[in-house]
């Protein structure tokens, strides 16, 4: 029979051998998930004996992570904006970078109607609906499988969000005060250079922005003004090197007061403008 300390070391060692980034941290997260313990409980009694069946369960999950399956797919959830979101291989795993987008939209969204284009897990529109009062909240995605996950998250967080299956604006009616989007923005040629956790396990349709990574920005910007109220606002998450190009696209389509915001790492992350 192994102790908690032994179990943790076994998990960490296997992840290190498999060259998993943050092996120590992921081994700990799986400890929390399987043994339902926090760090205080662990350090109070690291020599505590662990039942063999629980050890085997833990190592099954460790072996999955060692294959570069994302931790969030193994445990089925991801943390975002201090909330837990259901995820699967059908949706992009919510990233901390996207919290910068949420925090900026929140400054303008109260009592407004908001459309979230390319909603995926619905983490953007659900977080907005949870954290402020929205007059109307709509999430749009082309993927029915993604919308099934989005539906579960909306129910989980008990918010009023309408979901629409649509290829961008094809099936959208009406106008909104705010349109927000974290569209696919990675250049096609770069996809194969991404970490295995991303390129092999997250939906390519949520990653691939085609040749220059800007395809969806062009398409959304070109049409969005037909779905914005007068003086409405549009917000995008962007790749770290896309700020100037997305700003140019917005200005060429007669949006004004275009601003580029940086994330906590000092990289361009959000572009927004007024119609």
From TrEMBL:
* Signal peptide positions on this chain: none
Highest taxon in the source lineage:
Bacteria
Recite the UniProt keywords alphabetically.
Answer: Methyltransferase, S-adenosyl-L-methionine, Transferase
Kindly give the InterPro entries that the UniProt entry links to this protein.
DNA_methylase_N6_adenine_CS, HemK-like, N5-glutamine_MTase, PrmC_N, RF_methyltr_PrmC, SAM-dependent_MTases_sf, Small_mtfrase_dom
Tell me the Gene3D superfamilies matching this sequence: DNA helicase RuvA subunit, C-terminal domain, Vaccinia Virus protein VP39
Membrane-traversing stretches: none
Q: Alphabetically, which GO biological process terms does the record hold?
A: methylation
The UniProt record gives the binding positions of substrate as 182-185
Residues bound to S-adenosyl-L-methionine are: 141, 182
Catalysed transformations (reactions): L-glutaminyl-[peptide chain release factor] + S-adenosyl-L-methionine = N(5)-methyl-L-glutaminyl-[peptide chain release factor] + S-adenosyl-L-homocysteine + H(+)
List the molecular function annotations (GO) for this entry.
nucleic acid binding; peptide chain release factor N(5)-glutamine methyltransferase activity
CDD domains of this UniProt entry? AdoMet_MTases
- The residue ranges of the Release factor glutamine methyltransferase N-terminal domain are 7-76
Positions of the Methyltransferase small domain? 101-189
Quote the EC number: 2.1.1.297
Write down a Pfam family by its short name.
PrmC_N
Q: Which family does it belong to?
A: Belongs to the protein N5-glutamine methyltransferase family. PrmC subfamily.
What is the role of this chain?
Answer: Methylates the class 1 translation termination release factors RF1/PrfA and RF2/PrfB on the glutamine residue of the universally conserved GGQ motif.
Q: What protein name applies here?
A: Release factor glutamine methyltransferase
The species is Anaeromicropila herbilytica
